[in-house]
Design goal:
mainly beta, globular
């Protein structure tokens, strides 16, 4: 899990992941869904619905697997989009 910078109840976040090659970062814009995650917090997803994460009011990000065998990248940080 990673810490969030901003409002944990925001409608959208930019979630920054470590790049797959280990160099740099990948930024994914995620918007709130009506779903709740396993911890009961809002679930956010990217435009494709493939990248999903639960973001708690305490500022924790938990990436959720959307298919079998998926290994989500490590979250570096998240920031609320206003």
């Amino acid at each position: 899990m990673s810490t969030v910078h901003g409002d944990a109840d925001a409608e959208a976040y930019e979630v920054v992941f470590a790049a797959a090659d280990g160099v740099g970062e990948d930024v994914v814009r995620m918007t709130r869904t009506p779903a709740a995650g396993p911890g009961g917090h809002p679930v956010y997803e990217d435009a494709t619905g493939i990248v999903r994460a639960e973001i708690s009011s305490g500022g924790e990000v938990r990436v959720l697997a959307t298919s079998g065998g998926q290994q989500p990248a490590r979250v570096l940080r998240a920031r609320a989009v206003t």
